Amino acid sequence: MSDDTAHPHAPEGRRPRDGHCVVLGGSIAGLFAARVLYETFARVTVVDRDTLPTTDENRRGVPQGRHAHAILPAGTRGLQEMFPGLLEYFEAAGVPVVREPTEMHFAPGGHLLCQEGRYADPTPTYQPTRPQLEGGVRARVRELPGVEIVDRCEATGLLSTPDGTRVTGVRLVHRDSGAERELTADLVVDATGRGGRTTRWLTDLGHEPPREDRIAVDIKYVSRTLRLAPGALGRRKVVIVGAEPGRPTGATFLQHEPDRWMLTLIGYGGHHPPTDPGDFLEFAKPILPSDVFEALCAAEPLDAPVAHRYPASVRRRYEGLERFPDGLLVFGDAICSFNPVYGQGMSVAALQADVLRECLGHGRDRLAYRFFRAAARRIEVAWQMAVGSDLALPQVEGDRPLPVRLSNAFFGAVLTAAEQDPVVAQEFVKVSSLLSAPLILLNPVTLGRVVRGNLHPRRRRPIRSH
Ligand SMILES: Cc1cc2nc3c(=O)[nH]c(=O)nc-3n(C[C@H](O)[C@H](O)[C@H](O)COP(=O)(O)OP(=O)(O)OC[C@H]3O[C@@H](n4cnc5c(N)ncnc54)[C@H](O)[C@@H]3O)c2cc1C
Questions:
Q1: Which end of the chain is more exposed for a tag (fewer CB within 10 A), N or C?
Q2: How many structural domains does the chain have?
């Protein structure tokens, strides 16, 4: 099938849209991929095994939707570019927006970041719930010409040429009727999440699976939604307290509506939060600032605590494969699933979408080869930051070579300075939100401030903020 009409959003000079692409998985990464692919493919079919809701509901295939889910500014930029008007729609619907440091209590690694000054980068943080975010994105993808979203359909295998060098489509099973169906495609994109099946399918086609890097973090999330009295936390709209070497537990407390908040408690190996409501509250006590804990005690629970286990961060090194079939790509968590406490997954999916657009701009020849290498460079920064932070905790198993120890010592110094210096705090936030590379912290001016901040560090105080 071909369509000779160049897409209105396509950059000038791009070839007309043609061909059919199938995206497996209609969650955030699959939707981002579909948004980019429709610029060059005449037809894009997104297939998901779940029932995809038309309202902002949680669903089975995305259990993480019941837990605190924040999109970092790097992902927000991607949303702005891919879906103009979506963020404004969220804001008009009452989604809280964090624009000032005073609205965020952010304490990574035991350091409460200075809340003075203004954010140097104008990208604010929007706080829709995960189902709200996914629902908003899906509604916009559904409206794109040539895009069809098919739910309750499970991908069970790939179709290929007899020698396995080219993928020609996908095998599907409809979950209601059990009927099998083959869908041919010029490109199949696997966005089925961390359980992505491409590794097994590659073996079926006679290819090697990719090498996997794993960091066993053994994390448990327990979350519940609460009603807080308006203004109970002052100006704060988000409270994030990370784990630290002496306390492998943390919390994220996110405002989703003026009086509706989600509290997620997190614990690394052996220090898992309980689901019993009373014990859940007790677990939060040593983590949260005392005034936040008091507000929590006075809050009205709106649901029961729910749990989610996350055993390991997994990175599949597709970029290292010598042979990979044409007509196939892997995308999103199916390439790299990050320890969720750093909130990187959706933003890295947006960065991958950017990479995919760039690669498609140079045609479809050797697409997988070019995409995996370019995506790996974007993933690398986020992966190293997450792994480095995890390895700062003695509870996480893994080698700690000299570069990791040096980098962790440096980040410790940056965070110490960031407690009192708004400039250092904002430079750190730019890095942790994936807007800038960590190299910006080595800028001589920032370095000077880091050194000064460590010569006269503020005496450690109980963490309590505005
Ligand atoms: C507890 C937790 C908290 C998180 N918190 C954050 C956060 O704060 N910020 C952030 O940016 N990221 C967070 N993440 C990560 C984020 O959820 C993912 O990065 C994001 O959803 C993109 O993943 P994905 O679309 O690749 O896969 P997923 O979201 O896992 O979706 C996979 C999709 O594929 C479908 N599927 C699976 N198999 C098949 C099949 N065989 N056939 C058809 N369909 C199939 C599923 O139904 C699902 O819709 C968190 C993750 C977890 C686990």
A1: N
A2: 3
